[in-house]
Amino acid sequence: MKKIFLLLVTVVLLAAITFILFPYRSSKEPLTEIKADPKTEMHKRIAKLIKAQSRVKDQKKSDIKPRPVIVKKAKEPHDRVMAASLRKEIKRSIKEGKKDIRVVLNTTDDKEGVSTSVINAGGRIIRKRPGFMAVEVPADKAEQIIMGNSSIGFARLPFKFYPAGKITEGVNLTGANIFYNTIYRGTGIKVAVVDVGFKGLSAAIAAGELPSNVITQNFSDSGLETEYYHGTACAEIVYDMAPDAELHLIKLGDEISGIEVVDYLIDNNIDIVSLSVGTFGTGPGDGTGYLDEAFDELRNAGILVIASAGNYGNTTYESLTFGSHWEGTFYNSTGDIFHEFVPGDPDIYYNILAAYPTQNDDGVPESGEVSIIMRWNDSWPGSDIDYDMHLYEYNYETDEFVNVDEPVEWSINCQGCGEFDEPLEWISIDIPDNEDYLHYYALVVSRWDEETPTGRKLELYLGGTSEFVPFDDSLSAISTSASSISEPADAVSVMAVGAIDYTRWLTGPQEEYSSQGATNAWNGSSARIKPDIMGPDGVTTYTYGDANFFGTSAATPHVAGMAALQLSINPSMTPNELQALLQANTIDMGSSGKDNLYGYGRSKIKDTDNDGMPDSWETKYGLDINVNDASSDLDSDGLSNIIEYRLGTYPKMADTDYDGMPDGWEVQKNLNPLINDATGDPDGDSLSNINEYSAGTNPKDNDSDDDGMPDGWEVQYGLNPLVNDANGDMDNDKYTNLEEYQEGTLPNDRKSRPRRGMPWLPLLLED
User: Fold this and answer.
1) Is the peptide bond before 77 cis (omega within 30 degrees of 0)?
2) Digit-coded pLDDT (tens) for 200-239
3) How far is CA 133 from CA 109, 114, 136, 394, in A?
4) Contact of 183 with 646, CB cutoff 8 Å
5) What does the H/E/C string look like for 429-445?
C-alpha cells in the first residue's frame, strides 16, 4: 500500500530552474569557481565527461542492469490524511520548542467543525475557500486537530518559494524612452514587485537605482533584505521603465504568506503586479487550481498580474540537449508496470537527471535541490489512476544504477483512496553542501499495478538545481519544451511573459529555456496559447553587477513597467483593456498571429508615424497614427501636439483644465495647464490669473510694465498695466499716477490727491 497524497509542490521561483546563480559541477569536482553562468558550467562538464568516456553502444541496458523491483509499501492511517513531510515538521517543531505551525487543509463543505477545533486550540484561520483552509495552530496540537476531524480530507505544509532567475537596455529596445521627458512616466500608478528576497535594497536606494520612497512589506519569516537579490533586480527594471510609478516591494515566504500578499494587493489598490515567481503542480496546468484561482481574484479586483512564463524549455550546449520539463503519454509495450520514456523501447524505462548542492544569497544551504513534480491527465481532484515515481542513484560514467534494489526516494501517493486524491506525485531531496559534486539520478515512473490503465498524458517538472541530462549516447536529454508554462502564468487572468536576449531583440529567436505553450488540455479544459508577450533579458543591473540578469524573471518587470507607462496615459483602463493594449503594442514574431513561442510578439511602444507620440496617446485623443503631426496645433492654443503630449494636455482642447485660460498661455506664464487656477494670484498683485489673462499681464510679475505700480492697482483704476504711465496724470490734479499710488490716493479722481502742507492752495489757484 502507498502513502497518501503528498499534496501539491514546493513552489519554485520560475527562473531558478534555469538561471539560479550557482555553479554546476561534474563528478566529485569541488565547487571552487565563480558563481556565474551556471548552466554553461554544468553543460561543459557533462560534455567533457561524455567525450572522455567509452560506452558499449551495442549492449542493451537490460543486459547491463536489471529493472528495479518496486516494493509496495503499506499505508498507515496517517498517510491517508496527513503528508509525511507535515508529520516530520510537526515533530521537529515540537522538539525545537516552536510554538505554532502553519498548515493547509483540504476540507469538505462542512468546515465549521474544523474552524471551531482550530480556534478552541488557540489557533487562527488565515483564509477559507471552498474545499481549502489555511490555518496556524499550536505545534503540539496540530496532529490532534488534523486526525480528530473527519471533515479534513488531507493536510500538508504550505508551499515554499524559491528564487527564479545602470539603466536596463530594455528601456530603449521596447520604446519606453518615448515616455521620458513627459508627464506619463507611471505617475499615479501603483506597481507591486512580489518576490522572495530584496537583498541589497538599501544599497540600490543609496546608489539612486531605486527611489527612497519605495513601500515595503514583508510576509516571510526572515528579513526583507535577506536570502535573495532577485527581487531588488526586478524592482530596478520596473523603476528604469516607469520611474514615477509608486513601487511596493513585497516579500513572500510560503503559500500562506502568498495568500496574505493577495489580500495586501487588493487592500492597497495595486494596479499592476510584477511576478517573477511561479510553481508547478498546484493544478492540472490548464489555468485552474488554488493558485490560479487566487490570481483570478486579483483580476476581478482590477489588478493586472504580469508573470514570468517559466524557464523550462530545453537548452543546447555543444550539440547536447538539457531540459527541465518532459511531457508525453504513459506508455508500456511489455505489460509490466514501467513507463517507457521512448515509446516502444522497453530499455528506456527511466530518465537521467543531475543536481548539485547550492546556497541562497545569504550563504544558507538550500533545500530541495532535487525537486520533481509529476502530474497526469485525470480528474483534479478525485483521481483514481495511480502512477508513481522512484528515484535511484545513478553512475553516469558507467551507465548503471548504483543500487537497483534501493531507491533514494520515492513518491507513492494514493490515487483512488478518496475524493481529495489528485493526480500528483512529488519528490524532494536535499543535497548536503559537503557533497560538492554533481549527483546523478535515474527516475523511474511506474503504474501501481498491471491493471492500472496506461495512455494518459503525463508531465514532469524539475525544480531546485536538477535538470534532465543527455541520455546514454543519444547526446540529448529526454525532455520537451512544448507545454512547459508554469503556474500561475497558465491562468487566463495572468499575462505570461517569455524572454528574448536583448542582443537578439529585433530578430529572435526566443531564449531556448523560455517556457512554451500551450497550456494543458486536461481535466476537461481546452489548450490555450501561451505565453502572451515577450520581454528582453540578459540585461545589466546595479544589483547583479557584471553578471547579466537572464531568464523570464528579467523579462517580466520590463513588461510590467510598460504597463505602468500605458496606464498612466489612461488610468481608467480595466485590466482587460490594459492587457489588450499591451498585446496590440507588439511586433509579431514567429508564426503569424499569437503562437506558443512568442505569444503576440515582442513588446514595443508603437509610434507608427515616428512623430515622438505613442500610438496609444494619439488614438486616445483622435490624432492620426499614420501622419507625423508633431508640430501641428490642432486647438490653436499655442502648443504643438508634441508639446501637448509631453505636458499631458489635450491636443484638441485649448483649455484642458477648464479655467478660462488657454493651455499655451498658461505654459508661457509658468502656470499649470492641468490645474484650474483661475482664481490664483501667484504674484500677489490683487489680480487673479484669469484677470491677468484678460488684461494681458503676467501672472508671475506684479508689475508687468515696470512702472512702479502693481498691475492690479492699475486695472482697478483704469490705467493700462502694459504701458509705463508712471508720469501720467490721469485726473489732471497735478500729481502723477505713481505719486497717487505711492500716497494711496485715487489716480482717477482729482479730488483725491496727496496731502501737503497747504492742500487747499491748488484749488484757489484754479480758474
Assistant:
1) no
2) 999 999 999 999 999 999 988 889 998 889 999 999 999 9
3) 11, 9, 10, 40
4) yes
5) ECCCCCCCCCEEEEEEE
Under 8 Å CB-to-CB from 69, ≥6 apart: which residues? 404, 405
All 3 cell numbers of residue 499?
A: 524572454
The whole-chain average pLDDT of the chain stands at: 84
C-alpha cell at 663: 493651455
Q: What domains does the chain contain, in order, with CATH numbers?
A: 21-57+312-474 (2.60.120.380), 84-156 (3.30.70.2980), 170-311+487-603 (3.40.50.200)
Task: Please check whether residue 196 is in contact with residue 220, taking contact to mean a CB–CB distance below 8 angstroms.
Answer: yes
For residue 465, give the nearest of 9, 7, 25, 8 by alpha carbon: 25
Strand-pair category, 467-468 with 545-549:
unpaired
Cβ(517)–Cβ(483) below 8 Å: yes
CA-nearest of 411, 336, 400 to 376 is 411
CA distance 618 to 644: 11
C-alpha grid cell, residue 475: 547526446
Give strand pairing partners of 219.
252
- The residue with cell 521561483 is 13
DSSP state of 476: B
d(CA 315, CA 47): 13
H/E run at residue 79:
helix 77-81
Closest CA to 519 of 337, 679, 288, 211: 288
Q: Looking at 19-141, which runs of residues are DSSP E strands?
A: 100-107, 124-129, 132-138
| Paired sense of beta strands 545-549 and 539-541, if any | antiparallel
Cβ-proximal residues to 391 (8 Å cutoff; 6+ apart), any chain: 370, 372, 407, 408, 409, 410, 427, 429, 441, 442, 443, 444
Number of H-type helices and E-type strands within the chain? 21, 27
Cell reading at 396 = 553516469
* Cα→Cα distances 593→224, 558, 580, 623, Å: 42, 22, 14, 26
Q: Could you give the CA distance from residue 661 to residue 664 in angstroms, rounded to a whole number?
A: 8
Model pTM score: 0.81
Backbone conformation region of residue 708, classed left if phi is above 0, alpha if psi is from -120 to 50, else beta: left
Q: Cα(237)–Cα(540) distance, rounded to whole angstroms?
A: 9
The residue to which cell 487566487 is assigned: 294
**Model confidence pLDDT, tens digit, residues 617-627:** 999 999 999 99
Quote the Cα angle for 204-210-214, to 5°: 115
User: What does the block give as the cell for 336?
Assistant: 509490466
Identify the H or E element spanning 274.
Answer: strand 272-275
CA distances, 296 to each of 383, 490, 680 (Å)? 24, 11, 47
Compute and round to an integer the Cα radius of gyration of the chain.
Answer: 35
Residue type, 662: P
pLDDT single digits (tens) 250-309: 998 766 777 788 889 999 999 999 999 888 888 899 999 878 888 899 999 999 999 999
